[in-house]
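Table S7 (text form). Paired inputs.
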Amino acid sequence: MASTNVLAFGASRNIGYFSAVRLLEKGATVTFLLRSPSAFDSDVTIQKYIKSGHARLVKGDASIEADTQRAWNEAGVVDAVIFSVGTYPTFHLTKGFVQTPANLVCQCLLNVLCTMQTYPDAPQPKMIIISSTGLTPSAHKELPVLLKPLYGVVLAAPHKDKIGMERAIAHCAGWTWDQKTDGPVEEEILGEGWMQRKGLPPPGSLKRMLVIRPALLTDGKCEADEAAAKGKGKVAYRVSEKELGGYMISRKDTAHFVVDALTRWDEFGNKRVNISY
């Protein structure tokens, strides 16, 4: 990991942040696109890597295409991208749980893809995209019964956004998309004519994609680290292309898998996987 150059979107906190810290600890260089770089002013861990030159902060917003372009430019030749943009829904008296804007994640991803750099002497970057379990009709059926109301009501708006995000990924990666099994995409999410957008990679041209669909996220500890410290051979979490029907996974364990997957790309690259305890 010592020579790995990573570009991170949505990494000011949560999975993206924990993944970036783990990579920095392994000697990687990480460029963060941040709306407020001051968010790291009192972060002792990140400040240490800023001083060493391994953490680089670019001020900007992934919802603005010019900012994602600048992030790519300033990062240099990128080996890996971590995309973990997300937001929390808010409750509206007449509309229920809503997300503003409704297509935040989807449009940020399209900006990242449309400004993605190509390198004559280097391969495409490995791209790890954080999504969610329970998005598709088939995945929703496999959810634990107690979680179905949460996913069907509270998380409905952000999940519509992530379905659009996954549809865009499938288009660029050349993966099949069936509206009955993968889910319909509302027009307001991707926007009319999105496939013809300037700069969008042609269908099937992106071959180094990994979509991670975590179960319900918690702020718990990294069970994988604790198991390793105790010398336990048991895997702390489950990862599968099949639906797992699990209840939850911590953000720190998800970040553990993000970094692990980068070192085991032949096993996980070009897939959509679920992760849960």
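Next pair, protein 2 of 2.
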Amino acid sequence: MFLNFNYTFTDKSYNNPREFDQYNEDKYSSVKSIHIHGTTDRHDNNPVIFGFGDEIDDDYKSIEKLNDNSYLEHIKSINYLETDNYKKLLEYINSGNFQIFIFGHSCGISDRTLLNTIFEHENCASIKLFYHQKAEHIDNYSDIVRNISRNFNDKAKMRDRVVNKNYCEQLK
């Protein structure tokens, strides 16, 4: 499954299952995509979702206590309920073990609640990063790992699941 956080269709460039043969036991299955934050295609009934996605944060609790629904208008988890994307994601992660590949996502706290749900799920086997090599001896692997750590409540799970840089790959 390709969980796309982008509003465009960049996932189509990865939609050849043979590209994932080295990782995929079911080599000839089709890659399914979920555009969790909607798309730019106004005809697909998948509206774009902008907003705050960190209900783990203490500030979110204070927003809820204001008892004013207008402050919750741009909360991602509430807007996920406008489509069945989130439900499809949960069905997928509940169906068996999975490995996460991260391509181009910063893993920052704007998606913290969703990433926490996926990263700490009992079926998550590992999290493999595809990082940007900026210059010789300079890349963003450690920055992504630091961001990933903020999405974990259980830091022992984080250290167990994030793949060591030696086994991760540069984006090409």
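The two ends are 20 Å apart (CA to CA).
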